[in-house]
Amino acid sequence: MNEYKPFESEIIDGDILAIVLHGDLDSTSTPDFNRQIQAHLDAGLSKIIIDCRHMGFISSLGIGSLVALQTKLRRKGGEVKLAAIFGPVMEVMRLVRLDLMLDMYGDLEFARKSFYPKGQAPEAKAT
Q1: What distance lies between CA 86 and its chain's CA centroid?
Q2: Which domain does 24 fall in, by range?
């Protein structure tokens, strides 16, 4: 039986943390999300992509976590980018104007390429 994991993380291109959320970012999951992110920040990573394709809901606590993360990363010269936000979650992001604060991309690959100067992104490795 597979254990449910609310997040999966992977390092891509050697220095970009990609996190795929599986479910909501709310009062139940946000503390674990913050701990996982902090472990990567402590390891020196400052480029993060959060893939939201499986997220159905984001609470005010989740929104606050994303804002705090962006603030921390910008202080370190890094950035958080969101990928694959759809439906009600995107509506909430627009409502609280998070779409103006965070870079959002259609999918993880577009977000990955945005960390590089135009035309200089390495080819994605097949997984």
Answers
A1: 14
A2: 7-113
What total number of domains does the chain contain?
1
Beta-carbon count within 10 A of 77 CB: 8
- Residue 127 in domain: no
> Which residue in 52, 64, 121, 44 sits closest to 90, CA to CA?
52
Question: In this structure, is residue 105 part of a structural domain?
Answer: yes
Sequential pLDDT tens for the chain (127 residues): 456 678 899 999 999 999 999 989 999 999 999 998 899 899 988 999 999 999 999 999 999 999 999 999 999 899 999 999 999 999 999 999 999 999 999 999 999 999 998 878 777 654 4
Beta strand pairing status for 47-51 and 7-12? unpaired
Q: Does residue 124 lie in a domain region?
A: no
For 42-66, the DSSP string reads: HTT--EEEEE-TT---B-HHHHHHH
